[in-house]
Design a protein that fits this description.
Blueprint (H helix, E strand, L loop, with lengths): L11 H8 L20 H19 L29 E5 L7 E5 L4 E7 L2 E6 L11 E3 L2 E3 L6 E3 L5 E3 L11 E4 L2 E4 L1
Antiparallel strand pairs: 1-10, 2-3, 3-4, 5-6, 6-7, 7-8, 9-10
Keywords: 2Fe-2S, Disulfide bond, Iron, Iron-sulfur, Metal-binding
Protein name: Cytochrome bc1 complex Rieske iron-sulfur subunit
Pfam family, one: Rieske
Length: 181
């Protein structure tokens, strides 16, 4: 047995084994042969980081649930309300049928003619899930994704699931030409 020096604690059997350096009593393994075992602290940090990531992700954008409160129509600039395509000709008046309309998917615009000589412009992006509308028929603008329908006169919802009307797009009629403002 090993006697401890004054002021030191007595190691007992464990201390005696540790002091026998070079002895055959030492374990025959190296520390790099041991597999890693995470500590409680590591597990708590990893769990906290995972929870924080989930919390931040749940606070992010909903990915288009249709509940956005933005007053800017898709394709418009917040500062001046223009798309950079001011005055771009979309169609001639003869291309838009009375009681119907035409979709310009590249410009994200629908132009309708509810009555002879009365032309309206709306965004072609459905307010429900931001799909591009596909047809204009029987007095409605129709979205293929979930069946929403909008009136050609004012863009109001004619058939859910959409709950908000299609935002109006400014167009002008100059002679026979319909232009996006």
């Amino acid at each position: 047995m090993i006697h401890s020096a004054p002021g030191c604690f007595f190691f007992g059997a464990f201390g005696a084994k540790m002091l026998l350096l070079g002895s055959e009593r030492l374990p025959h393994f190296r520390s790099d042969d041991m597999t890693y075992r995470p500590t409680r602290r590591t597990i708590l940090i990893a769990t906290g980081a995972t929870g924080a990531t989930a919390l931040v992700a749940s606070c992010g954008d909903s990915g288009g649930d249709g509940d956005s409160t933005s007053t800017t129509a898709p394709g418009q600039d917040d500062q001046d309300g223009q798309t950079g395509q001011e005055g771009k000709e979309l169609a001639t008046t003869s291309e838009i049928p009375v009681g119907g309309g035409k979709i310009f998917a590249d410009d994200k615009v629908v132009v309708t003619q509810p009555e002879t000589g009365q032309f309206k412009g709306f965004t072609a992006i459905c307010t429900h899930q931001q799909c591009t509308v596909a047809t204009v028929a029987d007095g409605t603008i129709n979205c293929p994704c979930h069946g929403s329908k909008f009136n050609i006169t004012d863009g109001s919802v004619a058939h859910p699931p959409a709950t908000r009307p299609l935002p109006e797009k400014k167009i002008t009629v100059d002679g026979n030409s319909i232009r996006l403002v």
